[in-house]
Each structure stands twice: as C-alpha cells, then as structure tokens.
Design brief:
The chain is mainly α. The chain is built from 8 helices and 3 strands; from the N terminus they run H-H-H-H-H-H-H-E-E-H-E. It has helices spanning 11-23, 29-47, 50-62, 84-94, 109-120, 158-166, 176-180, 217-226; strands at 189-193, 202-206, 242-246. The two termini are 37 Å apart.
Amino acid sequence: MYQSSHFTSTTPLAISLLADAVKRPLFLPEELDAQRDAAAYEIREINTKPEMVLPEILHQVAYQNNTLGNPLLCPEERLPRIDRELLKEYVRTWFRPDRMVIAGNGIEHYDLVKLVEEHFGDLRTPPKPLETTPPSRSIPTHLLSAAATSPSLLHKTLTTAAASFLNPRHIAEPTFEELASAKARYTGGQIFLHRPEEQFNHIYVAFEGVSIHDDDVYTLAAMQMLLGGGGSFSAGTLGSPVLVHTF
C-alpha cells in the first residue's frame, strides 16, 4: 500500500508521485542493501517474541506449502535472494489493475477518476495463466507426534525451525504467476518447537473457519470476540486442527 497526506492543491502531484513509485521503481542497489539490513534486524527482533511469531508459524502448519501458509516474514537466510530482477518480476505479477484499489478522501470523485486515468490508465491486466491443482501432500509423521522434540532445534529461531519442517528443499517453489491464481488448500497438522530457554510455555490452537465471502463470517467474527479472540474478521478464518506449542 502506498499513501499520501497532502494539501488539496497538491493532489495531482501526489497521484503522479504514487504512480511513478508503482510503475517505475528503480530498485537501486544501495537501497536494496539498506532494506535487507533493516529486514534482517526486524526479523531477529520478532523471532525473540513468541506471541508475534507463533501466529505466523501456525498459518504455515495450517496451509503447508501453499497460499496462506507462505510466511509473511521473509526467512533471514533468504534475504540475499531479494534482488532487482526478483522485485521487477514481483511488480509485473502483482501490480496490475485487477489487483489494485485507489481511494481518495477530500477530493471529488470525478476529479480522482480523471487523475487515475491520466496516471494509471496505461496499465493492462495480463492474461491469466491456466490454473493447476497442486498435488496433495501428507503430513509428515514427525509433525504429528509430541515426541518430535529434537535437541538440534535449540539453536534455531522459531521461523527457521518451522521452515525446516514445513518447507523441505525437494519441493519446488511456486512462481509468482502460480501464486497469483492459487487457491488456499488447508492441510492441518501440528508442530513442536523445543525452546527450554523460554520463560513461559506458548500453546496455540486454531480451528477452521469459513470463507470471508460466507454469510456466516459475521457470526464467526462475533463468536471469536466473545471467546476472547481478535476483533478482525480474519481472526477466526484460519484452519485446524492445528496445534503449535513450545516448551
């Protein structure tokens, strides 16, 4: 998401700058280096806070190797792979009209539409690739047993430990095009991360909900809040039986 807060008279300039950032990013090497360093620091900080990183791992268990199971946090060992060509491919795949919303506040609708047509009107939606159904994958037995405790996990971060279980190297990674049209595929499972140095135990249990387009999503969101869960509509739409716990 890109946004700007500005005086009314500078709205045309703001739309122009936003369009320039979206359509013509330079991805300068020095900027990429700075962002990789910043991302590495943030990832290490988050990995020290189980309450922040465990929901991430929980999604990886619920939707192993597909869509909602793809981590929001980039594994630190993958940061060097983020280069100019990868980001350009990302922009080509995702920055397109059918995935874009432009909203304005304090500007007449007609004026906003005119500015958007002027600065974004040349964007075109590429043809959609043929949808393919990913092969089903059984849950590894070492994810289903609490006896899966391994001393080798002691010196790994939570996300690294989860990645070693949930993303074996022999599974081919999807392309951006495949991700753009992929459907969420619930797998379920559980994972145990041995962290004896933690002061507290952390246990997460999640249950499968309904689609965001289902009429019952409102009932589910209300029940989620009554049971002490989050207040967002997405808070109760995960999948289960999923169990993540650390000791």
